[in-house]
Structure to design on (389 residues):
């Protein structure tokens, strides 16, 4: 569930806000696990147990740890939007633990950064161009999830389109002759960028196809070069900003041989994105810190499956431990009862009163100082004792 939440336990979280263009009523401020379970119950034809609610970055982190055969320190998603999770020292966590349903007694905790919201309080204003501001103003949630719009794939194609529109209207591109499609909002999906940059030098096969889809047939070789350059500049900026965010977290974690698990369509399908991210990280990560980028295939899905398996195994282990403890307690009680009966039998009491059948029995003895008196029943040859001591 890749939306900002206030998580109180493994299977309880309140949705803070929708992102990535989604919007619906009756969910913000509610426990999303409870809502899902209620919906499942209303159907009545399926049985599903929700054992954990996780962010896709956490799933990527767990999947990368599994694939690397060791640890993963940071999980990153660069897809429609962008986000990251990382391992934090519990002693440094100032907010949230007091709201936990059960006490958290582990030295580290996974933190979901929700860094897609960086810039929402004007921290990134110096980065924003006139084109970013236009795209933001036309988005479903203006002024929200600023970093998502700068890095993720949802807005990358639209930023390119807005640049192309301005260049065309300024007669720098296509000799000033655009098309209704080019001037239409969201008509240039981010996948066009990947396809254009995948063209081999001098071929421009994909570029020509895309220009045809945009309804532009009056272009020159220099127009195709400029179109490609716009795609490079916008998408490389996205990679550089994503790398800057990853570098900040790496510099905070500060462990040797850190593993960064990365998943997401933008990172995966753009032909140069992974190279650009790695190249910028080498520039921004503090000297002496070593890291490894590990791209996970469907990391969020695999991680969710692994977490479910881990929770199921832990529940089974805990149940077995409880059963063993109950058995040990029962054995201890039985041993105490047997010991008491043996001592009573061997004791020379001051007074003994036995009655046949299901009658009361009272014993007072000087030889068992720990027990002042007993009340019990004789039934089928067994003495059942009870005491306040």
């Amino acid at each position: 569930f890749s939306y900002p939440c206030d998580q109180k336990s493994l299977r309880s979280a309140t949705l803070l806000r929708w992102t990535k263009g989604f919007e619906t009523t009756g969910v913000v401020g509610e426990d999303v696990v409870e809502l899902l379970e209620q919906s499942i119950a209303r159907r009545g034809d399926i049985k599903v147990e929700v054992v954990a609610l996780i962010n896709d970055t956490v799933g990527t982190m767990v999947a990368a740890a599994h694939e690397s055969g060791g640890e993963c320190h940071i999980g990153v998603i660069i897809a429609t939007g962008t986000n990251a999770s990382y391992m934090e020292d519990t002693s440094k966590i100032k907010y949230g633990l007091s709201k936990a349903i059960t006490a958290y007694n582990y030295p580290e905790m996974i933190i979901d950064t929700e860094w897609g919201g960086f810039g929402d309080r004007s921290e990134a204003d110096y980065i924003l161009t006139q084109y970013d501001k236009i795209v933001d103003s036309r988005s479903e949630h203006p002024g929200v999830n600023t970093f998502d719009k700068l890095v993720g794939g949802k807005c990358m194609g639209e930023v390119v389109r807005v640049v192309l529109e301005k260049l065309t209207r300024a007669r720098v591109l296509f000799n000033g002759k655009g098309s209704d499609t080019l001037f239409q909002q969201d008509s240039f999906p981010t996948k066009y960028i990947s396809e254009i940059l995948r063209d081999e030098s001098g071929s421009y096969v994909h570029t020509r196809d895309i220009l045809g889809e945009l309804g532009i047939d009056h272009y020159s070789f220099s127009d195709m070069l400029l179109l490609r350059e716009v795609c490079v500049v916008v998408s490389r900026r996205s990679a550089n900003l994503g790398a800057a965010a990853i570098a900040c977290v790496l510099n905070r974690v500060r462990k040797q041989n850190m593993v960064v698990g990365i998943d997401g369509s933008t990172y995966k399908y753009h032909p140069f994105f992974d190279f650009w991210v790695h190249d910028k990280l080498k520039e921004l990560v503090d000297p002496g810190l070593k890291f490894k980028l590990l791209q996970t295939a469907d990391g969020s899905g695999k991680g969710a499956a692994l977490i479910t398996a881990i929770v199921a195994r832990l529940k089974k282990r805990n149940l077995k431990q409880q059963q063993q403890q109950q058995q040990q307690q029962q054995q201890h009680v039985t041993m105490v009862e047997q010991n008491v009966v043996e001592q009573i039998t061997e004791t020379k009491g001051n007074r003994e009163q036995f009655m046949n059948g299901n009658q009361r029995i009272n014993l007072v003895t000087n030889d068992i100082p720990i027990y002042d008196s007993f009340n019990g029943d004789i039934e089928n040859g067994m003495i059942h004792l009870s005491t306040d001591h």
